[in-house]
Design goal:
Elements (H helix, E strand, L loop, with lengths): L1 E6 L5 H5 L13 E7 L11 E7 L5 E13 L14 E5 L3 E7 L3 E11 L3 E10 L1 E5 L6 E13 L3 E21 L3 E19 L2 E13 L9 E10 L3 E9 L9 H4 L5 E3 L6 E5 L6 E5 L5 E6 L4 E2 L7 E6 L2 E6 L1
Parallel strand pairs: 3-11
Antiparallel strand pairs: 1-10, 2-4, 2-15, 4-5, 5-6, 6-7, 7-8, 7-9, 8-10, 10-11, 11-12, 12-13, 13-14, 14-15, 16-17, 17-20, 18-19, 18-21, 21-22
Length: 328
C-alpha cells in the first residue's frame, strides 16, 4: 500500500478532541437507524474548514423510511472469503458494505460490496493492495492519498482485475443543524472519494464513491448524518445514485418517486430466451447493445424481450432512461 499523508494546518485542541482514533472507532454490534432524506438536496460539499456551519435543518425526507447504519463481524459474512484480512463491516443501509480492519496506527479497507441497479451486486476485493482509509489520529486538516488494486466481480462481467485511487480527509469542524431544531456543536466531517477502474471487453468501467460522514462523538461512534453518491460510468451506460441519511427526522416530505427513479429489475440473468423487465409498461421503446456498443436489437417492449438469436456474451438494454446489464 502506497500512501502520502498531508497536514494542512496546526490542530487546535478542540479539533484534536474530535479526531478519529482506534478508541472511538465503532464496535461490532453498534447500530443507528437514520431517516432517508431527499437525494436532490444540496450536500454542502464546499463548506469546509474550522468553525463552519452545515445547515440541513430544512431538508425534506421520505416519510416513514429509515436505513440502518451498523458495524458487523466480517468473519461471519458469506463474502468473507474475498476479504480475509477484514475484521469489521461498515454497512450503510444495506446498500454499501465496506470491509475493513484497523490497528492503533491506521484503518484500511479490503474492499466493498455494493448493490448497483445496473450491474446487480458488485463485489470489489482489494486483495493485491488494500486501501488506506485514515491514519490514526485523524483530525481536521489531515488527509490521505492511496492506490489500491484487486478484482471486481459482477454477474454480468465475472471477475476482472481492477485498480483505483482514493483521497480521504477531515475537511470540516463545526456546527451541524438537522431538522426539528436539533443542533450539534462539535461535529467533525470525514470525506472519502475514490475511483475504481476496470476494463470489460476493451471498454473502461469506472466506479466512483463520494461520501461525507458527520460525527459527534458525544452522541455516538457512528455518523449522525451521511451523504453518499455512487456513480458507475462506461461507454455503454452511466448510473448514479445519491443516498442522504439523517439522525433526526425531517419535518417536510417528498414522495419516494420524487426522490429517485424507481429502479428497473430484469430477470432471469443470465438469460437464454425471454428477458423480462419489472417496472416497464407495454410499448416502451428499447435498445440492446453488445460489449462494443453496437445496437444488436431494438423494438417496443411486449411483456418480455426475445433474445434467443443473440450470441452468448454481455449486453446492455437501454429502456425508460435506464441501462441494465445482462448476460446470455
Amino acid at each position: 500500500m502506497k500512501n502520502i499523508t498531508f497536514f494542512f494546518s496546526l490542530l487546535t485542541l478542540t479539533a484534536f478532541s474530535q479526531s478519529f482514533n482506534q478508541g472511538n472507532e465503532a464496535s461490532i454490534g453498534n447500530l443507528v437507524s437514520l431517516h432517508l432524506c431527499d437525494s436532490n438536496a444540496n450536500i454542502l460539499a464546499g463548506t469546509i474548514g474550522n468553525n463552519v456551519t452545515w445547515d440541513f435543518s430544512q431538508i425534506a425526507g421520505i416519510f416513514g423510511v429509515t436505513k440502518d447504519v451498523q458495524i458487523n463481524d466480517a468473519t461471519l459474512d458469506p463474502n468473507f472469503a474475498s476479504y480475509p484480512g477484514a475484521s469489521k463491516i461498515y454497512d450503510i443501509g444495506g446498500t454499501l458494505l465496506t470491509f475493513f480492519s484497523s490497528t492503533a496506527n491506521d484503518r484500511t479497507s479490503q474492499g466493498f460490496v455494493f448493490n448497483e441497479p445496473a450491474l446487480g451486486v458488485v463485489t470489489a476485493a482489494w486483495s493485491t493492495n488494500d486501501q488506506l482509509i485514515m491514519n490514526y489520529p485523524f483530525a481536521l486538516g489531515n488527509s490521505t492519498s492511496d492506490n489500491f488494486s484487486g478484482n471486481v466481480t459482477t454477474t454480468a462481467t465475472g471477475t476482472i482485475p481492477a485498480t483505483g485511487t482514493s483521497m480521504t480527509g477531515v475537511d470540516g469542524l463545526g456546527t451541524l443543524m438537522l431538522p426539528g431544531n436539533n443542533t450539534y456543536n462539535n461535529v467533525v466531517r470525514f470525506h472519502l472519494k475514490d475511483s475504481a477502474n476496470a476494463s470489460v471487453f476493451g471498454s473502461a468501467v469506472t466506479f466512483v464513491r463520494d461520501v461525507y460522514e458527520y460525527y459527534d462523538f458525544t452522541v455516538g461512534n457512528l455518523p449522525v448524518f451521511i451523504t453518499m453518491t455512487v456513480t458507475v460510468n462506461s461507454a455503454l451506460f452511466a448510473n448514479s445514485s445519491t443516498l442522504i441519511l439523517s439522525k433526526d427526522q425531517p419535518t417536510t416530505f417528498v414522495g419516494l418517486e420524487e426522490n429517485q427513479a424507481n429502479p428497473l429489475v430484469l430477470f432471469p440473468n443470465p438469460v437464454q430466451q425471454s428477458l423480462c423487465i419489472k417496472g416497464i409498461n407495454y410499448g416502451e421503446a428499447f435498445q440492446i447493445q453488445n460489449g462494443i456498443g453496437q445496437i444488436v436489437l431494438e423494438g417496443l417492449f411486449d411483456n418480455s424481450i426475445d433474445v434467443t438469436n443473440l450470441a452468448n456474451g454481455i449486453y446492455v438494454v437501454k429502456i425508460k432512461g435506464q441501462a441494465l446489464t445482462f448476460t446470455k
